Amino acid sequence: MKTRKQILMLLLVMLAGIPTLSAQTKKEKKEQKKEAVRQLIVSEDYKIDVNTAMPMRGRSIPLTSQYSLQIRNDSVFSYLPYYGRAYSVPYGGGSGLIFNAPLKEYTMDMDKKGNAVIKFSARSPEDFFEFRAKVFPDGTTSIDVTMQNRQAISYWGEVDLDKVGIFMSQTGGGCRATNYIGFIRRALKKADMEQIPVISLNLAGIESNPGFHLNADLMLRAAIGAEFGDIFMRCVYRMRPYEATPGSVDALHREWLKKVQDFVSAKHISIGKFRRMCTEIIRDFDAIPVLDIKKPRVGVVGEILVKFSPAGNNHLVELLESEGAEAVVPDLIDFMLYCFYNQIYKAEHLGTSKKTAKISALGIWAIEHILRGSAVKAFEESKHFDAPTSIYKIVSYAEPIVSIGNQTGEGWFLTGEMVELIKEGVPNIVCTQPFGCLPNHVVGKGVIKALRKAYPSSNIVAIDYDPGASEVNQLNRIKLMLSTAQKNLKKGEGVE
For the domain 44-163, what is the CATH code? Predict the structure, then answer.
């Protein structure tokens, strides 16, 4: 995702780096750099440092000055020298390949060898340019440029990994993620990428992050982006399994995603426009033609990383859809509400700051009524969607089964989410767990028996995800759960 400060969420770098701290081979370092390059290119916010020009005629020319080609915010910033024959140029030679312009027809595809092939066009006041760049796994890059008024030219360079950072949120406390920052830094050092900063977003004072500051504008944009993401997730997962025209849901998603990216990265944010966009997105997805069929609905809950990250859960949503089911994933913002409510509970039962509790209660109100207000109303008025559930109602769902004082990791919230899904007609649930995560096992796997007793129709399976775990075993257990879900659907259980 693009950001104004070129800070990238290289989560896969983190995941690749942690298991390889003891003794990294050259092959492992190569793979880590390959993943860093891939994530940077996918972000569509990167810079290529150019060191060699190759005209159509003559020898290649080493470049000693700092020439570059940069992609940022749907624009190309070209600072490249030109050597070759010009057919038509302004008096004095013009600016050549030194220009800034909007991107046109930008595409990025991965070939069979793992190279990123990037194509786009741009127009300056004096010429029309067509770029074709091939980025190799090690970051080296070839660039071919064709023009209307000049001979074609090629360049050689390398993706700049010094302009990126790893951004990671931390909850603090008993979660293992508290220790990940140090491990990530060590992994980067062993991979010869020590220059990449690792930035921690946390409210517990774990890291100071000199040079990085959260301000009101950045936090507002993050909150708005998170809400848009939750809306997309709720809409796409609900409609895609039933679409009458294959690909129509993903096409609409791409269309709206571009609009959302432009809005979030704009110079000024309009709250009124944000609310209108939320409503329009939901109405557009609600209007997509769908087939009149029934599929088992399967909820996805669990530890926050493996719950939301396809890389962490072996693309669980895609697996469920390919097996003839509909995936239902609760919102990311619900976790923020869970964190706010914990402060209220601590003030009431553990004697912590009542001021913090009041601020947290205000935060819950702001999220549920201001940030989510328009989306909730649109979901309630829709034909196909369910509206998000209030955090206070989720608390009431969890209380009979587990103590609200259980706040490590996903704590009571994980149990509350499962009850919420069951009550909304989603009795089939996959509880995703990192291998060996004790808090997640207690409030996930540990409450399944109580849930089955309270809700006999519930069909819950706990799946451990770990680099060393067998994907075949995971798949077999999920398919067994889906087999039961299909049988229950035929009998009329779990049908809305």
Answer: 2.40.128.410
